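User: Hi! I have a protein structure encoded as tokens and I'd like to know what sequence might fold into it. I'm fairly new to this, so please keep things simple.
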């Protein structure tokens, strides 16, 4: 697992970056604990994995 930009993760999910960011909102407590900070462009690996698991995004490399 490696870090990904919001746009990379949104593309893998087939959604816009705005929709991806909306998906973050119900999980902000968990994401903050995993290292997400406001206005981050590159998401830490733990955050990428969490979002991919929550929304069934295939992030295999």
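Assistant: Happy to help. Inverse folding works backwards from shape to sequence: for each of the 61 positions I chose a residue that suits the local structure. Here it is:
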């Amino acid at each position: 697992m490696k870090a990904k930009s919001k746009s990379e993760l949104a593309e893998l999910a087939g959604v816009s970056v705005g929709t991806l960011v909306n998906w973050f909102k119900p999980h902000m407590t968990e994401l903050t604990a995993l290292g997400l900070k406001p206005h981050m462009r590159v998401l830490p690996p733990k955050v990428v994995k969490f979002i991919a698991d929550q929304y069934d995004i295939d992030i295999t490399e």
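A useful reference point when you look it over: The helical segments are 6-13, 17-24, 28-33, 45-55. Feel free to ask if any position seems puzzling.
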